[in-house]
Amino acid sequence: MTKEQSKITAVILAGGQAKRMGGVDKGLALMNGRPLATWVLERIAPQVDELLISANRNLDQYRLFGHPVLPDPSPDFQGPLAGLLRAMTEAAHPLILSVPCDTPFLPDDLVGRLTVALEESGADIAIPVCGGQVHRAVCLCRHNLLPGLENFLARGGRRVGEWQSMLRRVEVPFDDEQAFLNLNTADELTRLGTR
User: Binding site annotation covers 124?
Assistant: First the structure.
């Protein structure tokens, strides 16, 4: 893989309804006085070549982070795959990293390890596994998956795991289970914000 072929666009997925957090815009919920999406952006930005934000509400607030903000093509909250699809249509690079806006403790070597696994395996997608749990919303995939993902969504598919099960995938082991915590409640934001 050449240097150009290994360039990465990351998309921060902040387009959900956040039902478990009372419907607030989760990416803008505060942890230690800062929006949750800020923590994720700071973890991921040094590891990638381009950053995009998938959001469906409060677009002007997300634009203040200084990266392109992409609403889903459909207004009915079709889930994280719709955000990934939109990012793939706009991405400047051949590899796409997807991370949710509620995972503020992602590893500093996430992208490097996923990229090596993707290259060595020849897989379509690399997914982290930690403590026996597969973290499907965090993944590194190839841009050429775009037509298949488009077809999957057009047929009514929504589940990330179902789409990924149709691909050549490699699971990449990580040790720090806290690194993949996703914060779903106001209590978790308060309790884990001091980690």
Answer: no
